[in-house]
Amino acid sequence: MDWKRIAKTLWELPGKTAMVRFQAALRGHSRLQWLEALRATGIAQRLGQGASVEELRSGLAVVQAELLQSFLDYGARIGELRRRGDRYELRGVLARALAASTPEGIAMAGMLEETVRYHGDVFRDLPKTLRESVRPDYLAAYGGVVAQSSRLLFPMIWGYVDKALGGSADLSILEMGCGSGIYLKAYSELGAGLHGVGVDLSAGALAVAQANLDAWGIGDRFTLLRADLREEVWPSALDGPFDVITSYQNVYYFTAAERARLFQKFAVHLAPGGRVFVVSTFSANAPISRYFDVILLASAGCYALPRVEEVHRELTAAGLVVDAESQLVPGQPLFGLVARRP
After folding, report:
1. Is 155-340 a CATH 3.40.50.150 domain?
2. 222-226/195-200 β-pairing
3. Contact 295/122 with Cβ under 8 angstroms?
4. Domain ranges, ordered by start, for the chain
5. CATH node for 3-97
6. Taking Cα atoms as reference points, which of 44, 99, 94 lies closest to residue 72?
7. Is the peptide bond preceding residue 14 cis, with omega within 30 degrees of 0?
8. How crowded is the C-beta side of 320, counted as CA atoms within 13 Å?
9. Within 13 Å, how many C-alpha atoms sit on residue 262's CB side?
10. pLDDT in tens, 99-157
11. In the Cβ-directed half-sphere of 200, how many Cα atoms lie within 13 Å?
12. pTM for the predicted model, two decimal places
């Protein structure tokens, strides 16, 4: 093979730098697409103990055997699977995470589905969305998925909140945007006297949360309620007063004016000395912030990420005293604020 000629030809290709960049981007993109298919087809779980093509065909009612074989061979080529004779098994860290029934595995599966499907829909629809006055309601379809994927940040957020709570065991809690219910479970483990209400606007998220609470055996300690806290009058179940009101990863579902009114309502429904916990990814110059601004601004009911100092001012304007403002992950725009009613 004439390597010199090939090298010369490649060097003289127009747009070669762009092509190299494209190939690098394609590798990451195709891996995510493949991993999402591994999850969605159920193959990830079937390969937990290893399986042959015939076992997968039988167990998953596969008709397209050649396509299945090609799919598995590609997974082995990129290092997510390992082939031993006629059997395939999970090898890569991501592939093994998708097969795990642990909270981390479930969260990773949710984040993968959110990224490939929800975010994929956003960018696919963007030419149309840019030209229309009404944005697509992606959360109607993906609310449950977002609730699952948000659990990836649970260790960082809960570590911060748990320390700030100081082991308090007898509290009434209102959680705004309860998602999968994972934080309600964490609260319940602080003590038998802790109880409260979890609110979410997404029926999909509430369905996930209710199933989880029932499975965890704490469904009798928390009431789940579908409600829009932007409404002037809140349901009577939210009268309180509450010792703690929380808002994790959802301040971007409100305009600045709506957040200001929301924090004023928080102050009214807090017990004297009660606290508000706000944790979120905030606006910053980091690429991840700008990326999520695109996803949010393309989705009905979502708004651009606010800056942490904006939310700080809004809490103060509501009559609350901000006691703490902390960056939860070094180098990342994930911040927590704790404010209390005097």
Report:
1. yes
2. parallel
3. yes
4. 3-97, 100-144, 155-340
5. 1.10.10.10
6. 44
7. no
8. 33
9. 21
10. 988 878 888 999 999 999 999 999 999 999 999 999 999 988 998 888 888 888 888 89
11. 26
12. 0.85
